[in-house]
Amino acid sequence: MDISLEAALTGRRSVRAFAAESPPREMVAEALRLAEFAPNAGNRQQIWRVVCADSATLARVGRTQTVLRAKFNAGKPLVVTEAELAIAASAFYDAPVAVALFAPSRFHFAAADAYVYAQTLCLSAFGLGLASCIVGGVGDAVGADNGRKWRVPEGYAPQCYVLLGAQRGPLPAVHPRKYPPVVWA
Ligand SMILES: Cc1cc2nc3c(=O)[nH]c(=O)nc-3n(C[C@H](O)[C@H](O)[C@H](O)COP(=O)(O)O)c2cc1C
Fold it and tell me: What is the pTM of this model?
């Protein structure tokens, strides 16, 4: 990885179109290892990470996530039916890999820790030549069956996901910066 920090910060984009092939396992492992240097609350380093490259599981969790997000936005109970799943688009687009990030649900900084790790992972992935996108978590799209398979510790809940893969098509354009001005007090 010989990319300048400025090039990484300004060059990383959220990519939503991926090539079908999974990135090499060693590359994903290295991106995950580098992201372990993310700041984290109380230095607990407790984010539980699951790399999923199974297309059927990705489709189900991604579709569930889409339905949960729509329900949340509509102020409806976070209950998902098979009929709703059948017609939902996946929140994971066509990514070959999603990293699910879990944290203890009764920890005040659970979401903060997971998103800081997620962003660090996007940057480490970018440095290694991988495209990425954070997908915000709403409710539990993973479900108890996958949770058991993925050895998610008791009391942990999904916080967010990071899609990884090779980008398909051109890199998305840089969004113009529109932050409010900085106040120097
Ligand atoms: C907390 C958070 C949640 C996000 N959730 C989603 C998401 O669910 N789906 C998605 O496509 N992008 C998601 N993104 C990516 C943002 O849309 C993206 O960062 C933003 O549009 C700026 O684009 P850029 O990352 O290419 O600079 C999320 C980003 C953050 C920080």
Answer: 0.97
